[in-house]
Amino acid sequence: MSDTPETDKNTWSDSSEGILYKVVTSDFARKLERERDKARTELEMWRDGNIMHQIHRDELEKTERERDEARNELKQWHTLRLYGAEPEYIHEYIRMLRYNC
């Protein structure tokens, strides 16, 4: 017995023209095609889901980087303000850091 008993059950032999062929019924072949198509659709949906997940991860990482940069700028602003720097100087300093780094 093989590991595909359903196929074995739906197989018949044809030895026309001296060559032995193993053939399955058209109903069984259609059933296999439907199962294949369903599996392909499920695989495509799974792949699309993974792509969307990666897009969301990339967006999240970008947002986290922007948040961290803003936190660092705020920390620098507080530090400079603590030492008595004027707000105009601080804004210019942070702008310089942002575009020169």
Short description:
The chain is mainly alpha-helical and 101 residues long. It has helices at residues 5-9, 26-82, 87-100, and strands at 11-14, 21-24.
Keywords summarizing the entry:
101 residues; mainly alpha; two-stranded antiparallel ribbon; 3 helices; 8% strand
Structure description:
This protein is 75% helix and 8% strand. It has helices at residues 5-9, 26-82, 87-100, and strands at residues 11-14, 21-24. Strands 1-2 form a two-stranded antiparallel sheet. Helix 2 packs across helix 3. The model has no long low-confidence stretch (mean pLDDT 82).
Layout of secondary structure:
Layout: H1 5-9, E1 11-14, E2 21-24, H2 26-82, H3 87-100
Antiparallel strand pairs: 1-2
Helix pairs in contact: 2-3
